[in-house]
Amino acid sequence: MAEKNYHMSLDLTMSIINGKWKSLILCKLGMKSRRNGELLRKIPDISQKVLTQQLNELIDDGVVKRVRFPGLPLHVEYSLTDEGKSLRKVLIDMSIWGEKHAAKLQENGQQVSFVSDNFNGYIKMNQNEKDVSQQFS
């Protein structure tokens, strides 16, 4: 296997989560294991080709696992590995930072909007931001 060189460890982290849909895929898998069709419904703008490609990259990086269940019809589920679950704090912190930064940009007259401000997939359901901040302080 070819050696990968990075300028610093942050570059490795960013290479794993970088991709138009990866953060959303990780968020949706943070809630529970999901089948391919479920992910397509939860992320309606993603194509099957791109979903498969990004899932395979996340699997190769060791943050997502694919489990094939025996029998017909074919049943495959994707879920976070322990390594993937350990990304939660990073992703939550990045989400909170993004919300705060967006508020500052809006104060300066820039228009910033989000399709969703829900990052609950990275944490247990029904925890609010205050609980999240305290949990990871």
TrEMBL record:
Alphabetic keyword roster: DNA-binding, Transcription, Transcription regulation
Spans traversing the lipid bilayer: none
Keyword match Transcription regulation: yes
InterPro entries in the cross-refs: HTH_HxlR (IPR002577), WH-like_DNA-bd_sf (IPR036388), WH_DNA-bd_sf (IPR036390)
HTH hxlR-type domain segment(s): 8-106
Pfam families per UniProt: HxlR
GO molecular function, one term: DNA binding
Family matches, as SUPFAM superfamilies: Winged helix' DNA-binding domain (SSF46785)
Superkingdom to which the source organism belongs: Bacteria
Protein name as annotated: Helix-turn-helix transcriptional regulator
